[in-house]
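User: I'll paste a sequence; please echo it back and then give the predicted structure.

Assistant: Echoing your sequence first, then the prediction.
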Amino acid sequence: MITVTVVVVAVMRRPTRRQLLAAIGASGTAAVAGCLNGGNEEATPNGEGDNDGTNPAPLMTVGLETVADGMSSPLDVVFPQDEGLRYVATRPGELLVLDGDEAFEEPLLDLRDKVVTGGERGLLGIALHPEFAQNGRIFVRYSSAPREGTPGNYSHTFVLSEFEVNDALTRADSESERIILEIPQPQSNHNAGDIAFGPDGYLYVPVGDGGAGGDTGGGHVSDWYGANRGGNGQDVTENLLGSMLRIDVDNTEADENYAVPDDNPLVGREGLDEQYAWGLRNPWRISFDEGELYVADVGQNKYEEINIVENGGNYGWNVREGAHCYNASECPTSTPDDVRGGEPLIDPILEYPHSGDGITGISVTGGYVYRGSQIPELEGRYVFGDFQPQGRLFVGVPLDEEDEDWSLEHVDLTSDASERLGRILSFGRDEEGEMYVLGGGGLHRIVPAE
């Protein structure tokens, strides 16, 4: 029997959808709130480090069933519908094919001659077209050496491409690459990297703020907020960095690589039309559940956060880190009236600090809402993790039907599972709603503890 102990650790409140829609585009005065723990210290790369928090009792204990191991930095996994296959992307640039727990000798796709690594670069994300079983279209996100149009002092080029997979769904044609989008990246970090199709059929593409620290330095533009230098997170006109993009990869009628949905928030307004939301720092893993877009955004040096991202939402960076002022004792809770009508800076649904009592961490890794049957206690709860030396599973629990208030809890791994997993790199969810975690060179299914 599994004993469940519910420990409410942190509760966040965000604007209701009605309040948000009313505020976006409306005039208003930029309020100033007293915020705690501003700071401008540099975060350790990838958030690596230790913390001194004292953890409350876990929600429960779970185990891991290793599906496959021996992989080099597996960062993403997808599940072709009704095919019994799994595709795993590794940071060096291979897209592996697993049939059950057996890996094919040849990868689905080998991009190692195109992918650059180091820092937070690599083959970072994959997504299957909603009609993948019929059309064999797979989309990948990778870091390449600087390409045409990328300034000479920049680190690399972000590339989003499409490939065609054969009828057996086991090999992709490397010559079939169709480049959809390229974005110059000034630094080797804050690349985000995930991609996902939404229930509307459009492709959602999170883009980090360009790297370095504090959204400042080379490649970071000026914005409306004078208290902090930078940055790309609050700018919507100069580049696509620090934003969530939303594009239509099925519409190429205008001889473009993609089209922009008519209801993207900046269509017909000042700004770059591809942007769906902004104010993001380094979104590391996104997922959809029942129409809602969950985005984990890695913090600078004090707070990690989970957001539910909506059309036209501004999630605060680098004015705010989580629900707190960044690098200031006081900061606004909205943009000025003359900046997109005084839009609100939306607080996360969940956050946790890097130090202190209670649940702490160092770098968030986004997950999924659990919809499986093996662990009923997790049904409807958002399961995610943190990049600590011994990976930790966190659980966000909605406290009301409208997802306005959430509690944050944690889940223990059995000692054997913890040793095998190490640092958590990413998550996956199969067609049955069961969840997987990537780490320790392997793909592991989350299962009840024995």
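The two ends are 10 Å apart (CA to CA). The longest strand covers residues 172-185.
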